[in-house]
Write a structure and sequence with these properties.
123 residues, mainly alpha, two-stranded antiparallel ribbon, 4 strands, 7% strand, globular
């Protein structure tokens, strides 16, 4: 991992594709108010990727019409460890030698190591 603090990471450079709340709602087949609730309950994470943009979610959080398996639990672990949504997104999209980024490991159903590392960070 690089030396830039997660809070200062350039999310627009880390995350290749973003969706707004309406796009997230469409991807999951739910209402925008449900997306708002999912963000508030840490089932999803949202951030402003660049100045002037509204709050958005990484498109990689969705797979086959569902939230990526293991993401809500992982976000809860990270939030319990004191990380905010922006830091959670930065961590998920930073290469941690898993191999690859944590979000890729989750999408490939290799979430055990990702969750272990997140739990270790919380202490």
């Amino acid at each position: 991992m690089n030396d830039v603090p997660l809070a200062d990471a350039d999310l627009d450079a880390l995350v290749p594709e973003w969706v707004d709340w309406a796009g997230a709602a469409k991807a999951l087949g739910v209402t925008v108010s449900r997306i708002r609730t999912m963000i508030r309950e840490h089932e999803l994470a949202a951030a402003v990727p660049r100045p002037g943009a509204g709050q958005q979610l990484p498109a990689a959080f969705f797979q086959d019409g569902l939230v990526v398996k293991g993401l809500p639990g992982l976000l809860t672990v990270l939030h319990d460890g004191g990380y905010d949504d922006r830091e959670c997104i930065a961590w998920l999209f930073t290469d941690l030698d898993l191999p690859g980024r944590p979000i890729d490991a989750l999408r490939e159903n290799r979430g055990s190591e990702v969750k272990r590392r997140a739990q270790a960070m919380a202490f």
